[in-house]
Amino acid sequence: MRRTLTALLAALMLLTLAACGSSGSQAGGATQEDTAAVSGVVNRLGDFLVLLTEDDTYAIFDFGEGVDPDALEEGDSVTVTYTGELGSEDPVPVAVAVEKEDA
């Protein structure tokens, strides 16, 4: 009886760990794919982008793959598509696309 109970508890622990591992993977993948967009004016360029948004707050973004910072200039009106959460410092939101708006 003891061996059966021990084996059953061990199996339950393994199933619990397996379930936690698979749901964590799915949540991580979904977060990276979720994007949002914000419009504003490029305030500063460098290794990162500082955007003065339409509601007069500053947003800082890292550049994602495929985003060319050399195509931007300070003062450009742009729409930034990004992953992450605005205002977060760890991790900083990542700009996955930047489109210039027509003046």
How would you portray this structure in words?
Mean pLDDT is 83; it is low at 22-32. The protein is built from one helix and five strands. The chain is an alpha+beta fold and 103 residues long. β2 (48-53) and β3 (58-63) form a beta hairpin. The protein has a five-stranded mixed barrel with strand order 1-2-3-5-4. The longest helix has 32 residues, at 2-33.
Shape: rod-shaped
Series of H and E elements: HEEEEE
- Unreliable runs: 22-32
Structural class: alpha+beta
Number of strands: 5
- Number of alpha- plus pi-helical segments: 1
Proportion in β-strands: 25-35%
Strand order of the largest sheet: 1-2-3-5-4
Largest sheet: 5 strands, mixed, barrel
Q: Compute the gyration radius: what is it?
A: 22 Å
Helix content: 25-40%
Instruction: Give the distance, in angstroms, between the N- and C-terminal Cα atoms.
Output: 79 Å
Q: Give the mean pLDDT.
A: 83
Topology:
Layout: H1 2-33, E1 36-45, E2 48-53, E3 58-63, E4 77-83, E5 94-100
Descriptive labels:
alpha+beta; 103 residues; 1 helix; 5-stranded mixed β-barrel
Task: Tell me briefly what this model is.
By secondary structure, this protein is of the alpha+beta class. It has one helix at 2-33, and strands spanning 36-45, 48-53, 58-63, 77-83, 94-100.
